[in-house]
TrEMBL record:
Coiled coil start-end: none
Residue ranges of domain Low-salt glycan biosynthesis hexosyltransferase Agl6 C-terminal transmembrane region in the record: 309-399
InterPro entries noted in UniProt: Agl6_TM_C, Glyco_trans_2-like, Glycosyltransferase_2, Nucleotide-diphossugar_trans
Cited Gene3D superfamilies: Spore Coat Polysaccharide Biosynthesis Protein SpsA, Chain A (3.90.550.10)
Organism name: Dactylosporangium cerinum
Keyword Transmembrane helix among record annotations: yes
Name listed for the protein in its UniProt record: Glycosyltransferase family 2 protein
Similarity comment: Belongs to the glycosyltransferase 2 family.
SUPFAM superfamilies: Nucleotide-diphospho-sugar transferases
Keywords assigned: Membrane, Transmembrane, Transmembrane helix
């Protein structure tokens, strides 16, 4: 049942069922919950009071993720609508809550009583102007001492937020991972968000930015949470998952461009040093520099291949869409990689045969290493690169097989185009390979 929040006195708030003739719900406050008995009731009451003070027709919806401490009953007693999320994880709970919400706008917030749920006015006001996503910024609003670990405050959040701004041109977002944010429900549903873990916070803002949604920020505060137990967030595990998610969505600047530059530098150095020693800027470059040039070729090729894998993974899992700039990843097919790998490997093997023949002509005695290495090192590099390409093609083909297996059983999982989708086109959410890794909100 949906509740209308109305102020009946100076300090009294009344919650009553909304009659059918009442105005539709404008704002849904969604709280993901996993064993939050210590704080869920106060969070619900603060949110209801905040909506009442603003005179907003709204609801508070708690998406429970399998609590065993009585949190759902406490939330319902406080006036919240409680729904149960079948998919475990922070993102799983939020996806379920967003689907169940009735409001035009959704404000999502952690249920640990660390955010000011009584001050939702700036978020709602910004949403009413037509902004698609409104992010909270704790660094602008104020962080109470002890509310955020020093590692998160001075390293984790600033670095990941900086990467987000750099990779996705989000110049107006200073706090990438604020747990309090609002958005237009239908616009976010059209994105087909699917990450079930903590990286859902990154997925929401990144996918919105890639879809050219309008994004703004408002200051918000953070204080120490009201729980006596440790938070669900795991610093290194969840930090890595956020970083991994950024790389999947931005392989070009993080992997492809560096890989291309390193590969070209290695090839240029190798080509210059195979004929003999070179002198530049008063420095002598010989077989030692040749070894490192060949190493650069291998490292650069690996970066390029991993960039292709990242792009393939994103497309095949349905979390990114293929575009004309990424069609080169089709060359990571098993057949093409095997062909290229065999050609490069056979070239290296042929040069190796030449080197062994020369050694035999010398009676298999000691050779001049400065001359011998000019043939052996590039040959070994070519053989190694050929093997890498062959097995990279095998791995890429395994990635490409996955969606066909899933799609045959679940054709409804196709994503809607954010630019053209209507609420009727918006697909239902699904668990991903991450679901088994996420046991906590």
């Amino acid at each position: 049942m949906t509740w209308v929040v109305a102020v009946t006195g100076a300090s009294e708030t009344e919650r009553r069922p909304m009659p059918h003739s009442a105005a539709p719900v404008e704002v849904s406050v969604v709280l993901p919950c996993l064993n939050e008995a210590e704080t869920i009731e106060i969070c619900v009451r603060k949110a209801l009071a905040g909506l009442a003070e603003l005179g907003v027709a709204g609801e508070v919806l708690v998406s429970d993720n399998g609590s065993t401490d009585g949190s759902p009953a406490l939330a319902a007693a406080a006036g919240a609508k409680v729904v149960h999320a079948a998919i475990r994880g922070y993102g799983g709970a939020l996806i379920n809550g967003i689907e169940a919400a009735q409001g035009r706008y959704v404000v999502m917030c952690d249920a640990d009583d660390s955010y000011d749920l009584g001050n939702l006015g700036p978020f709602i006001a910004e949403l009413r102007t037509g902004t698609d996503v409104v992010m909270g910024n704790r660094f602008k609003g104020g962080i109470t001492p002890g509310a955020m670990p020093a590692l998160h405050r001075y390293l984790g959040n600033p670095v990941l937020s900086w990467l987000g701004r750099l990779l996705f041109a989000l110049s107006g977002v200073g706090d990438f991972h604020c747990g309090l944010r609002g958005f237009n429900r239908d616009r976010i549903r059209a994105l087909g968000l699917c990450m079930t873990g903590m990286e859902f916070a990154s997925e929401l803002v990144i996918r919105a930015a890639l879809a050219k949604y309008s994004i703004s920020e408002v200051p918000t505060t953070l204080r120490p949470d009201g729980r006596s137990r440790p938070p669900h967030l795991r610093t290194w595990r969840d930090g890595w998952r956020h970083l991994r998610f950024l790389l999947v969505f931005a392989p070009k600047p993080t992997l492809l461009v560096p890989g291309l530059l390193v590969t070209l530098a290695g090839l240029l150095g190798t080509a210059c040093l195979i004929p003999g020693e070179r002198h530049a800027f008063g420095v002598s470059l010989d077989v030692g520099a040749l070894v490192y040039s060949c190493l650069a070729v291998l490292v650069g090729a690996q970066l390029l291949i991993f960039g292709g894998f990242a792009r393939l993974y994103g497309v095949q899992e349905g979390i990114t869409r293929e575009d004309k700039h990424a069609r080169w990843t089709r060359w990571l097919s098993f057949e093409r990689c095997v062909t290229a790998g065999l050609l490069i490997g056979l070239l290296g093997l042929a040069n190796t045969v030449i080197a062994v023949t020369d050694w035999g002509h010398a009676g298999f005695s000691a050779l001049n290493p400065r001359e011998n290495l000019r043939t052996v090192v590039p040959s070994a590099t070519a053989i190694a690169l050929g093997v890498i390409l062959i097995f990279s093609g095998l791995f890429a083909s395994l990635l490409s097989l996955r969606p066909f297996v899933r799609g045959a059983a679940t054709p409804h999982l196709a994503r809607a185009d954010p630019a053209t989708a209507t609420p009727a086109d918006i697909p239902s959410q699904r668990p991903t390979v991450e679901a088994s890794e996420n046991s906590e909100v």
